[in-house]
Amino acid sequence: MDNRDSGERSRRVTINDIAAATGFAASTVSRALSRPGRVNVVTRERIEAVARELSYVPGTHTRAPALGRAETVAVLVSDVTNPFYFGLIRGTQHQLKAAGYANLLIDSENSAELESHMLSKLRQSIDGAILAASRLTGRQLAELDTTLPLVVINRRVHGVQSVVIDSPSGVVQAAEHLVALGHREIVYLSGPQNSWANEARWRSLVETAGRHGLPVRRIGPFPVGREPGAAAAEALISTGATACMTFNDLLAISMLARLRERGVAVPGEISIVGCDNIFGADFCHPGLTTLTAPIEQAGRVAVSMLLARLGDSGSRTNNGSASAARRSAVLPTQLVVRESTGPAPRRPRARAVADR
Hints:
Layout: H1 3-10, H2 15-22, H3 26-34, H4 41-53, E1 72-77, H5 84-98, E2 102-107, H6 112-122, E3 128-132, H7 138-144, E4 150-153, E5 161-166, H8 167-180, E6 186-189, H9 196-211, E7 216-219, H10 229-239, E8 243-246, H11 249-261, E9 271-273, E10 290-292, H12 295-310, E11 328-332, E12 334-336
Parallel strand pairs: 1-2, 1-3, 3-4, 4-5, 5-11, 6-7, 6-8, 8-9
Antiparallel strand pairs: 10-12
């Protein structure tokens, strides 16, 4: 054997090597080696033969067939203290319990690194994962999905199953509502830069305002939570705008408190629209106009999609492949109008309010 062959053999053979040699997708190779019952006999035998020929040794990411199902699904949320996720947790738990699965809840703390670490660490102990507001890149998610079945919520990634809450269409409703009230500039209080939903909402607002020939402005980003509310309110005041939309309700509710301290009337001087319709949005003062999101339904749909891929539902192909599972679902949102929005003031607000 020459040096080149020796160097090639010294590198651990991966699933991607087997995929290249057989012409099958890496996901098919992974299923054939970890869950052979989900791949037809001819395909499995071909993959197993090439694996032996290449001296493939399963790594920690490959579940031994003898271990069978863990009957556990990981549910990752970006911030477990955010009321937005309460419905998601309830929906996934109820659906998984009905199917005989355990629900392993993980708080990724808005960290892609922690998310990746926990999924890698738990890969031997779970059958799949549902990721809400994942901070991983699309490429990372697509690669991970080849060895661990995934469903992502509020994210679109090519080749990965997804449940998307259509907040961009809700943003259109909100923007049209503000325009009908006479507002002529809308400010967007931005959430995390690595949030897919944040970017989708901003694009929708830009497009809708553009159709009316109105300017929009984006300020932030602001961290998720209530703490940034004071800073966001101060930044909004300085723009002189009469209307704004926020990334989520937590930010909007905390802004209401700061604006009240500063003597800025809502909606008399500024109208505010939130997003998510979390618990508390209806009895803060004033009640928050916001977009309602079917988050509990999203959790249930995500579980159904994942279990279909795992073969635990009636809708699958003869070889149990993921092709029978639904690849994506879009759930509608709608605007809930409360007291935080009203007609634009007759006189434009000053650019700054220095002596409140």
